[in-house]
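Sequence in, structure out. Go.
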Amino acid sequence: MSGINFFSDNYVDNAVMSITTGAENTQFPLGNLQNESPSNKFRSTGNTVVIQLDLSTTRTIDTIAVVGDPTGTFGVTAMSVNTSVTTDFSLSTANAISLSSEHNIGYSFITSVSHRFVEITLTGTGSYSEMSNIFVGEKINLSQNSLSLGTFRYGYKDKSTIRRNRYGQSFIDTRNLQKFLAGTLEYCTKDEQEELDDMFIRHSRNKPIWMVIDPDSEAINEGQFKLATYGYLEESPRWSATGGQTYNAALRILGAV
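Output:
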């Protein structure tokens, strides 16, 4: 799916979740998947676990995404998702989710369906599976914005503190790295600008958002993961008009921790 993509309305937030195969580690319960902080993670007691989501009503689904604990290690080696109108998934086609342990994120765009139930199978790294946040829902795609890929960049903010004495000796309090993703949304149409503006207002700086810039790795090698993030707007974007026909806004997202 070329262009820039946002994942905003996450059906997992209000889903009824249960484990149909395996069990949860009570210190890392299943409910942590609905906690916005990826540091609050879910962990199973065995290497494989199957989670069922009841979305309460039929919903349109075309995107699945996942992140792990950014201060730890990516806790799964494989993930597949089935959807259905009932709890019988026997006729459902499994969707394998593309994962990157290096960049602590995974996602896949699937054939759009209108279903109520979702079955998620996680395979761990040995003795358990572990995951922080899962997105199930519809993407917002800006196909025209593939023209602005070159404005986007990513990097890591080192949260460590460093003090130096009068002799130049360093005293370092080592902390985590926090990913950021920044660039300019260019050439947005009036309809795109209005949809994005509503989304940015809804999320503001206090509700995390998912963003995928380069799903086809057109800009840089492994861009589908390097230019993808789950995090918070550093500030609400400010729009400008280009000749009254298209709209632009600078954007910076800090990875959630």
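Check: Residues 190-203 form the longest helix (14 residues). Residues 100 and 106 are 6 Å apart (CA to CA).
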